[in-house]
Structures are given as C-alpha cells and as structure tokens.
Design a protein that fits this description.
The chain is α/β, with parallel strands linked by helices. It is globular and about 75 Å long. Helix 2 packs antiparallel against helix 10 and helix 6 packs antiparallel against helix 7. The protein has 16 helices and 22 strands. The chain starts with a helix and ends with a helix. About 7% of the residues have low confidence. The longest helix has 29 residues. Strands 11-6-1-2-3-12-17 form a seven-stranded mixed beta sheet, sandwiched between helices.
Amino acid sequence: MKLSKSMILIVLCGILAIAAGSGLRLYFALHAKSGDIYSEIADAIGPGTPQYAALKEQGRFNILVMGEDNVDGSRRSDTILFATIDIDDKNMRILSIPRDTRAEIPGHGVQKINHAFAYGGVDLMKAAIEKYIGQPILYYVIVDYDSFPAFVDILGGVEIDVQKKMRYKDRAGKLDINIEPGKQLMNGETALHFVRFRKDALGDIGRVHRQQQFLKALIKKVYDPRIIVKIPELTAQIVKIFKTDMSPKLAVQLAGFVQNELGRDRIFFSTLHGTAATINNLSYWLGDVKSANAFLNAPVEELISGDIDEKSADSNFAGLSLAYSNAMDETPGDGKAAVISGDKKSKGPEMTNEQLFALIKSMPEAVAVLNGTGKPGVGEEVASRLQKMGIDVVHTGNAKHFDYRTSNVVYPVNADKNVTDTAKTLGKLLEVPNNLIRANKQAFYASIIVGHDSYSLIKRLDRLVEISSK
C-alpha cells in the first residue's frame, strides 16, 4: 500500500512538473521581448535570408489573414487582411482588401484578387497580394467558417452595436442571416453571420466595414482584464483552431507583444481606397495602391496625430469614409466615418501662476496657430487665448489638411535652439505628448496645429488664462 501511494505521488509530481514546465514556457513566451521575437523568426526562416535582412532593417513584418469560405467544396477567400506588425515602433496596421479588387494573379492574368485562393490556395494568394501591394508576406493565417465561431465562443462572445436589421437567406449557400438591430452580445454563430452579411446598398465595402467594427470590438474584449488573465490558455486554444505557418511559440509571443506593448490606440485599420467599376460585365474594385502604401509606411507618430494626408478622390465610397482609424474609434455599423473622442483629463497637478509665467517667459520666440480641423474660427479661438496669457502669436492660418485627429506642436526642419525650445515649452503648456512635438516641413514657426480634440485643448487654455489672471 505504501508503495502504491509513493507511486501515485511520483506520478502526480511528474504531472505537476510537466504542467509547471509548460506553464513557465508559456509565461516566458507571453512576456517575450522584441529580441525574442526576432530570434524565433530567425530560427524559422534563417538569419541569412533576404526576408530576415528586410525584417531587421525595417523592424516589421507582414501577415496575410484570410477568411476561407468553404461551401460544398468551393474554396474562396472573401475576407483578405494585410497586417503589418511593427516590432520596433510598436504598432500594428491592418489593411482590408476588398475581394473584388482587380489585380494580376501570377499565371492567370488580371482578375478579381480573391480568385487566387481558388486557383492556387495560400501560396498563390500570397504571391498575388505581394505583387499587388509590393511588400513581402512572412506568414499567413486562415480562419474558416468552422473555426471562427469557436474562436468567438472561447472569448465568451463579442458585444456589437448593430445599426439596422440584417436579413438574408441563401439556401444554396446554407446561409440564413437574421440579426435584429441594437447592442448585443453575439455568440460565435451570430458573429459569423454579422461579418458575412453584404446584402445592402454598400455590398462588399459595407461588409468590410462591419468586419472592422467586429475586429475593434474583439480587440476591446481581449483587453478586458477578465480576459487578459486567460490569454495564455486562450492563445494555446486559438493556435489549434486556426491554420497558419507561424509556430505556436511565435503566436504566443505576438499575443504577448500586443497585450504588453501595444495600446488599442496603436492598432490601426484602413480599407484599400478605390472605386467600383464594371469591366467586361464583371464588377471590380479598382484599388489605390499608392494610398495603401502611404498608410502602411507612414511613421507611427503621423498616424497617431493624424498628420498623414491620405485624402484622394477615392477615399469615400457612396458616402462611406475609407479613411484609417484606430481600434479605439467607434465605427458605427452603418459605415459612417469614425467618431473621434474630443475630451481628455488634464495630466498631473495644476501649475501655479508663478510656474506658468516662468514657462511663458522661457519661450524666446513667437508662435503660430494652424487650424487642422476645418471648423471656422477654431484657430482664432486658440490664438486669442494664447495672447491673453502673454504669448506672442505671429501667424494664424490653416494646416495642410483638416484631418488632424489630435493637436500637434511642430517646428521647422533645421530650426535653431530658440525655436525648438519654444516648441517644447508650448507643448508642455498645452499637454501635447512628447512624441507629437516634432520637426515638420509645413512649419515656419513653433506652431500648434489644432486637431479634432480642440474642445479639450480650448478647455485647457481657458484654465491657463484663468491661472494667468490671478
């Protein structure tokens, strides 16, 4: 009997040791540093390969995410996402490519880009997207109709605000969509119907926006503290249900990177700009690749601030904005432009009258105010408050565009120390983050570009004016 108990104890200890070892490996993978991610990728593709050299040079790599529609043996990929993960600058960008995008498919001529998956599976799809976008793809992930609901259910569902009734029945496609409007917690099956629906006036472009709405809600759920503690377990399960050429260890490392290193405001979404056209009786999406690369290659500070001019003739489709947004922007299901939050709380303790005057006195140069919102009078409102505080405003005008998401402080390229010091002090006064105080070609002075957070900026200025009058 004693021997039996000892044996049981040994077995239990063995199981615990294995479990502890697995847990530790998972823990370390989840808390991996960027160097660990580089090492894992180097082990997979070889440190001497051109792909790894490009990764080290740019600090980022690309993943192709595909939604596989496999009905009665007909394989298609109607959902195509080109994701760029920037390890060095800590951000992620996701570009939705409409399924009808007109592109050259190697060996098959110019066709709808989603046909590549039917012709040659993952490899041909990767080749077609790489040729179209002009950037290499390191890994792929395939989510099919069977794995998608399981994935959502693992997370306990996702909350979506449905803007209108969604009803569509397709017996041949075995699809019966019936979703009522309103905010609701969707299980896996309902969420799958939500992201597949495209029977409205906006067609596939409307579906693309609903998919982005779903992804933002999904990311919000993943950042929920109740979910974060389950990330190791969830990631292990998710790796099993998706098809990918990424190692399970790298998948966990990337999950940890997103969780630990990225805020939701550093995860960006955009849709391939373009226009709809009918060519030889077939409907296509004629994409603007130049605009797509402007989004994918822009410095992250420009994306955060909105200091990126991606406006083009095809940045809207049937009243729907295709402009980029981040994972914190609420994207209404009716496809309207993203809503940008306009209020934020003041940081740190309030300064005294003496501290304020000392800062103003330390500004050796005059400043300028540029309106980056397009709202008439906003620049003048800011300028008048700065002048009330005793700051010399030498110029008020418009910024190069009106889509600045947040206010920036800029100064001329090659500016002297007096100008850069003035810009830094102005940024400190107005609580502009350090990464949004920078050199810019449009600046002739130390300048505040008023963004769409103008309400909170003016509130801040009103408080400073009040302090200065004491």
